[in-house]
Amino acid sequence: MKKFIFACLIGILVVAGCTNDIKRSEPALGGPEDVLKQYVNAITDRDYATMVELYGGDYDWLQMFAPESDRQDKEKIFESYIQSVMPEKISFNEIKDKKEINEDEFVFVITFKDEDGTLFEVRTEDSSKTEFTYTVKRVDGVFKVMEPPPYQS
């Protein structure tokens, strides 16, 4: 009887361990468009863990927005970046263009909208931009977004 209970406990632990692995990798599953939408939703929700999971780009530039003490923590880097450059909440609006470079790389042109429903716009002294280009590449077998969220100075 003790062996049976022990075997059941081992079985439960194995199933629980597998379940955690599936949940952990879940955000990075899907095709390039799905991954891009999940990433943009993570920007909207300020879900820094999911941003890190789906981001495949460089952190060097993003690090300058984080305090020195947080520069080894990718979630804190995204949190500092978002809080510094995006005071307003934005959400996905639409995909304007999608181009397949090859089976492992796609380029999307997308728009965001502000909380009031108007197009999100990044302004500089001499121009404004409402369309944003995002590259989605297969990295280590899963699709990742290569650009950070839009920068609003």
Draw up the topology in text.
Elements: H1 2-25, H2 32-45, H3 48-54, H4 60-63, H5 74-85, E1 90-102, E2 105-114, E3 122-123, E4 128-129, E5 132-139, E6 142-145
Antiparallel strand pairs: 1-2, 2-5, 3-4, 5-6
Helix pairs in contact: 2-3, 3-5
Task: Note down, in words, how this protein is organized.
The protein is of the alpha+beta class. 40% of the residues lie in helices and 25% in strands. It is built from 5 helices and 6 strands. The chain has a 4-stranded antiparallel sheet with strand order 1-2-5-6, covered by helices on one side. The protein has a two-stranded antiparallel sheet with strand order 3-4. It is globular.
> What's the main sheet like?
4 strands, antiparallel
Strand content: 25-35%
SSE class: alpha+beta
Count of runs of 4 or more consecutive helical residues: 5
Specify Rg, calculated over alpha carbons: 19 Å
Total E-strand runs: 6
| Contiguous runs where pLDDT drops below 50 for at least 5 residues | 1-28
- The gross shape turns out to be globular
Kindly report the spatial arrangement of strands forming the biggest sheet: 1-2-5-6
What is the string of SSEs from the N terminus onward?
HHHHHEEEEEE
